[in-house]
Amino acid sequence: MKNIAIIGSGISGLTTAYLLAKKHKVTVFEKSAHIGGHTATVDVEVAGKSYAIDTGFIVFNNKTYPNFLALLDEIGVGKQEAEMSFSVHNTKTKLEYNGHNLNTLFAQRRNLFRPKFWGLVKEILRFNKLCKQAYESQKFNEADTLGDFLIEHDFSQFFAKHYILPMGAAIWSSSLTQMERFQFQFFVKFFHNHGLLNIADRPQWYVIPEGSRSYLSPLCQSFSDSIRVNSHIKFITRNNDKVQLHFSDLTNDTGDLNNDVEHIEEFDEVVLACHSDQALALLEDPSGEESTILSAMPYSENSVVLHTDISLLPKRKKAWASWNYQLSADRDKPASVTYNMNILQSLNSEHTFCVTLNQRESIAPGKILREFTYHHPIFSLESIGAQQQRKQICGQRHTHYAGAYWHSGFHEDGVRSGVEVAQRFDCFLSSYASQDD
Predict the structure, then answer these.
(1) Is the pLDDT at 111 greater than 60, yes or no?
(2) 91, 326 in Cβ contact below 8 A?
(3) Percentage helix, strand, coil, to 5, in the chain?
(4) How many CB atoms sit inside 10 A of residue 149's CB?
(5) Cβ(147)–Cβ(180) under 8 Å?
(6) How far is the C-alpha of 386 from the C-alpha of 213, rounded, in Å?
(7) Rounded to whole angstroms, how far apart are CA atoms 25 and 17?
(8) Within 102-260, where are the H helices?
(9) C-alpha–C-alpha distance, residues 53 and 44, integer Å
(10) Going by C-beta distance under 8 Å and a sequence separation of 6 or more, which residues neighbour residue 101?
(11) CA dihedral for 388, 392, 393, 395, sign (positive or negative)
(12) What gap in Å lies between CA 174 and CA 302, rounded to an integer?
């Protein structure tokens, strides 16, 4: 039995701890006052009624989340069906549509008489066909970007701006410019695996009843006494035999951090289940490979607001979708997407609850319920190349790395990365599905 420290209590850290606790002694350290990372359900009361609303991790599906589904099954947590739909609203031209069905596609009836809009529909079909052919051939140049593909196949700027770039930006919380620079191979595999290249026969999406936080308690049951929140680790040192965590302690009188007061705890192994940049910052003496690989996988900051301001949704209610992208003139602006939580979580309320990324200034102050800041991995040719070098640093010097950033950046990827670390210690998920990136 090994004594293992796990840094971070998001899905990656908690999955790792859950599996390792079957055979080893684990201690989970979390910097904030609560566990869960992006699993962040909040309770709000509006007009005398209470609602549990997800603000980070929301949805998963029956096709590309096999390990998360296996984990839920193992801990006895259920799921409920959710509608997944996507809309685009151009704030300048007022064009809007919702791709859920034909009626919502032409929610703005004038689009029936716009040749450019019919051209968009044709380009979507052509794009899907070409991407499927590329996936089937597997003849990729790793240096090619999504933007390169769009230029090579003569797709219009209208198609790029009003369909594929905002859809990708919404998925990865990136700007339109960053989406153009996305590795095409990575993009096609993700879209193919998620059924996003199909008009029909797409995966069934789900949410967790009563909010995503509902899985935290059963997941942590076996090691709940070994979770330590408000843990402020200054740095980590490693030698031939052990790993040492150096902590800043809270002073008794003010509750402020005192960097001069320190205690040290020793472990056999450490799992860094935090973001790549956070992991690198914790290492007092990172190797050259650790510095190179981890620094190649940066994160971006995203402002998130829970509110009831429906002006962030398309003008026409038929155009309201689960995910609603608002186009602006600034291509470098982070993703401006609003999640309609009434649709996603099947909330029965006369109020429409929205979770909006990166549009704080557009929301009526009196309709804001809660505000958050989340960080998401930035995927580029460099970061995707760094992903392939994980084995060079994972397991070296008693140090292991888990995080969704090692794959596609989603909840399933966090689970998968935790499972991969746990397997090194002969600990397994009951049903593990290996996947190709």
Answers:
(1) yes
(2) yes
(3) 40, 25, 40
(4) 21
(5) yes
(6) 31
(7) 9
(8) 102-105, 115-137, 146-152, 157-159, 165-172, 176-180, 184-193, 216-220
(9) 8
(10) none
(11) positive
(12) 9
| Distance in angstroms (rounded) separating the CA atoms of residues 112 and 267 | 65
* Widest distance between CA atoms in the chain: 72
Whole-model pTM: value is 0.92
Q: Domain 85-201+299-377 class?
A: alpha beta
Q: Amino acid letter at 270?
A: V
How far, in Å, CA of 217 to CA of 336, rounded? 32
Q: Which pairing describes strands 3-7 and 269-272: parallel, antiparallel, or unpaired? A: parallel
pLDDT at 332: 83
Q: Is residue 96 predicted with pLDDT exceeding 70? A: yes
**N- to C-terminal Cα distance for the chain?**
32
Q: Distance (Å, rounded) from C-alpha 76 to C-alpha 266?
A: 34
Question: Which of helix, strand or coil describes residue 387?
Answer: helix
Question: Which CATH fold topology does 3-44+210-296+381-423 show?
Answer: FAD/NAD(P)-binding domain (3.50.50)
Average pLDDT over residues 56-84: 96
C-alpha 22/C-alpha 45 separation (Å) is: 39
The length of the chain in residues reads 437
pLDDT above 90 (res 333):
no
Encoding tokens for residue 278? Answer: 């956070």
* Token pair of 367 as six digits: 């309709």
Percent of the chain past pLDDT 90, that is, above it, reads 88
Structure confidence by residue, pLDDT tens digits, 213-270: 999 999 999 999 999 999 999 999 999 899 999 998 764 445 565 656 578 999 999 9
Judge contact between 143 and 181, C-beta under 8 A.
no
| 9-20 pLDDT tens trace | 999 999 999 999
Which helix (H) or strand (E) segment is 422 a member of?
helix 411-423
Dist. CA 32–CA 274, nearest whole Å: 12
Q: Is 357 helix (H, G, I), strand (E, B) or coil?
A: strand
Identity of the amino acid at 271:
V
pLDDT at 249: 73
List the domain boundaries for the chain.
Answer: 3-44+210-296+381-423, 85-201+299-377
pLDDT tens readout for residues 367-389: 999 999 999 999 999 999 999 99
Using CA atoms in the order 67, 68, 72, 73, what is the torsion angle rounded to 10 degrees? -30
Q: Write out pLDDT tens, residues 376-433.
A: 999 999 999 999 999 999 999 999 999 999 999 999 999 999 999 999 999 999 876 6
Task: Return the H-helix or E-strand segment holding 4.
Answer: strand 3-7
